[in-house]
Amino acid sequence: MELKFVKRDVLKEKPTDETKLGFGRIFTDYMLMMKRDGERGWYSAQIEPYGDLQLSPAALVLHYAQEVFEGMKAYKTDDGRVLMFRPWDNIKRLATSAERICMAPFDQEFVLNSLYELIKMEKDWIPTSPGTSLYIRPTYIGVDPFVGVQPAKEYLLYVILSPVGAYYASGLSPVQIYVESKYVRAVKGGTGHHKTGGNYAASLLAGEKAHEKGYDQVLWLDGKENKYVEEVGSMNIFFKIKGELVTPMLAGSILPGITRASIIELAKDMGIPVTERRISMEEIYEASLDGSLEEVFGSGTAAVVSPVGELIWEDKHIIVNGGKMGETTQKLYDTLTGIQYGRIPDKFGWTVEVK
Amino acid sequence: MELKFVKRDVLKEKPTDETKLGFGRIFTDYMLMMKRDGERGWYSAQIEPYGDLQLSPAALVLHYAQEVFEGMKAYKTDDGRVLMFRPWDNIKRLATSAERICMAPFDQEFVLNSLYELIKMEKDWIPTSPGTSLYIRPTYIGVDPFVGVQPAKEYLLYVILSPVGAYYASGLSPVQIYVESKYVRAVKGGTGHHKTGGNYAASLLAGEKAHEKGYDQVLWLDGKENKYVEEVGSMNIFFKIKGELVTPMLAGSILPGITRASIIELAKDMGIPVTERRISMEEIYEASLDGSLEEVFGSGTAAVVSPVGELIWEDKHIIVNGGKMGETTQKLYDTLTGIQYGRIPDKFGWTVEVK
Lengths: 355, 355
Fold this sequence. Notes:
The structure is a homodimer.
Chain A (H helix, E strand, L loop, with lengths): L3 E2 L24 E8 L3 E9 L3 E3 L4 H5 L2 E3 L2 E5 L5 E4 L1 H14 L7 H14 L11 E10 L12 E10 L10 E6 L16 H16 L4 E5 L7 E4 L3 E6 L2 E5 L9 H12 L4 E4 L3 H9 L3 E8 L3 E10 L2 E4 L7 H14 L10 E3 L2
Parallel strand pairs in A: 1-3, 10-11, 10-17, 14-15
Antiparallel strand pairs in A: 2-3, 2-9, 5-8, 6-7, 6-8, 7-19, 8-9, 11-12, 13-14, 13-16, 16-17, 17-18
Helix pairs in contact in A: 2-3
């Protein structure tokens, strides 16, 4: 398939104040749009002006949530190059997520190369202040105008771009996390280890309740016993206990985070032991009592590494490292963002320059 | 709020061959469309020409599946009246589903009355052949053009209508059901007892695998122990064991079917004992071995009552009533559809004439 280009007549004004970018509200001039139907397969791919979709009110995605997405970023280096971080892993995960809910396969290499073209085209939209980046949202939806419950034949796969501000406007500040014991995000056999839209809808209520109580995010427990740690709202989670990093193993209900995988590799490379295993809140609570719980942090595309200052579990307040960011957390954050922004040599082969 | 009307210039041609209606592919001339935003609340409601929606590619519903829906029907009686079946219960459930995923509340009475107006307007679209009806699909979606994970402020609530054929074109025929032991539909604490889009996306893969093996639908087991019966793809399920009807109790992961509730009330009225309780596949298998499993059927809006002829559980084939429809199943089907089509007096107050 050939990637076409449709020019827009008038370009938008780019934001001038990078301190006011926020997250995900401003979109660039162009988007990548690919289309598929039942007869022709993938029949159209183009970079076209960012604009509204025309969807039937019966479109499958609006009824049965046949939708998956990814989140990734493009970074501008101090010398003006454009870097992306493991984008092939995101595109691969998009394909795996799609497969779980019976969406048509797509050519991952074609999508990745088309994405590079889009980024090149929109490189002037990448902000340059510390911590800012261009957020990239590949989205894949089933759109047949048919209200029967079945996999779609017609699809749109598109990518939109949004310049985003620094996640921590005033430096990394530890978050307070509410451990959710009533609502469940996912269970083995479900869709929890994929980026399907429904997982996020299901998470909203617990998130709102945590916000009302003044906490930043929710920590989900397993759906079977409500005992074992799974993941935080939009991040995987790591505990540093007696010098070792522990993170829940991927057992079918946790998102296989690309930042998570990078942290594991990076920590091991730094000589920090890492174990992926089942870990209960009881164990974490006991480690906090005997002083062996040293640090807690989340990992994800948005914040990269996010220190956790406090966990609230039932009536227990678990204060981590006196509510301050730990040394290992800081080191992992600095190294990973250093690689992403091209300040530190990338010996892992994670970054790619888009040029 | 006032319900407005926007006329379309040219009406569509109505289908002439009612044997070819199928399900959910043909839509009528008009739809009900209500809009809400963060400042004004619900600010617009109108009956307008059926047509495409304009949605931002960033619209929340396309990423985080903030979407709920309902399925209901309008029936034409032999003497030309239009009946609906417990529509207030569907609208109430739409509101409950919406609440579970943090969607804004709406005026249920206003929606119900507006729906009646739409049905009146489109009554000539209701087919009249035996078993046909007008399928009604209320849909509620969050549409903010913002890719942060949070509840929407902007919403569309709309209702589309589709004339549908008889579910069983050649008489009620028992279905073969595959008992799913690997994939899980829902777990307590999740969204399984609500009509959120994500539940349906999560169900597609198991459904496809069952179809490939030649079975009609999937029977879901509980997400914790994979032992207890929950519901069928698009139906609740009933077992007749030693003269008693048994159906899984509503314990947080099963959809509270309106047909289910009606069957329970109807059966009790007929003098058939009904128990809502936990029931395992082991118990059903044993009942089939000792001959006490008399009948199995599903209940839902689409098929009303659907006889089950065979359950396939691991390597066991459980043949129900020699693969034929049972007497109680037939009686419940005849009575319930009789009430819905106005052939049998409705002593329960379930039907409403739209006039």
